[in-house]
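Pasting two entries for a bug report.
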Amino acid sequence: MKLGGLTNPEFETLWAIVSAEEWNPDSHALEEVTSDGGTWTFRFPRQYLEMLRTLDSSAISSAAGSWAETDELPCEPADVEPVIQQLVSLARSVDDPGLGLFLWTST
């Protein structure tokens, strides 16, 4: 599933938002799995997926409002709410401990 140009810092910021915490690189970093020249692959940590799984529509709307106000994503909440809905859906589909959710980015 393509989420349109979002990179690990944006998803890390969202993690802090859904955690109701200030962003901290030590506790909200996606795990870098590999990098090769201009490409990177990151894994969403299990605890992040567990949080995403619990979000209901009200929590998704609230997170979208906060995420849209960040420096990383100056946009309207309606622009990012579908992204959070997709992440929640993906997180709910990854319930096997042997599976994970990954982000691939490139320059």
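Entry 2 (this is the one that rendered wrong in the viewer):
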Amino acid sequence: MAPFDAPITEEHTPSLASQRVIIALCLLLLATVSCAWLYQYAQQMRALGPVQPRFWSYVPANSLMWFMITLAMMLPAITPTIFLYARFALASASAARSTLVIIAAYLGVWGVFSVIASLAQFLLVRFGVASQVNVAVGNGSIMGALLVLAGLYQFSKLKSVCLESCRSPLPFVMRRWKPGWRGALNIGLHHGLHCIGCCWLLMAVLFVGGVMNLTWVVALAILVLIENTAPYGNRVGQGMGVVALVWGVVLLIHGQIVH
């Protein structure tokens, strides 16, 4: 019998509820620790002031920073998929291990993204495009172009396909389901790739308000959560796309950041 044909009986209910509570608490703890770490890191960077970045120290440290940002912003996005997988893996003795494999694979994909983002940040700071303290780009034309791209992307087909995998995890899990840890790895990797396809330009918008600005991180995390889970969340995302487009056009016209 396929895992999606198996009914969830009463005997499964306590185990399912327990798994959901444990998973939710762990993900909430990780997101909270990430926010606290980011706050402390931002304070340290401000205390140090402008410094000339050195590749072999700057990139690893800021790869960790970007990874913490993704933990804070993206863990809520994977929660529905984890709950769904846990529900249909209850009959397996390795359900807990497979669930951990999904989370590890998902975060591994974002780990690669974090290294790429850190490299981009290093280049922006090294060539004076972004500030060394807040890591915010001060060139209005560059920011305008970035916001216009982010706004347009909210209406693209690729964005829609990737977002649908997050908003409707059941069809996604059914397509990718395979037994054992290999199946869990497959789901985690593909879900991570879909989330990157959905949110990579939103992450890039952090350079507008400053990567070290925790307010921007929290605001974008809330937007991602609404977009991925709330009713009509996709419409909210498109509404924010319109805001980004208008803001970007204003910046391109005036050539300076308008607060």
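Dev reply: Rendering is fixed now. As a check, the viewer should reflect this: The chain has a mean pLDDT of 79.
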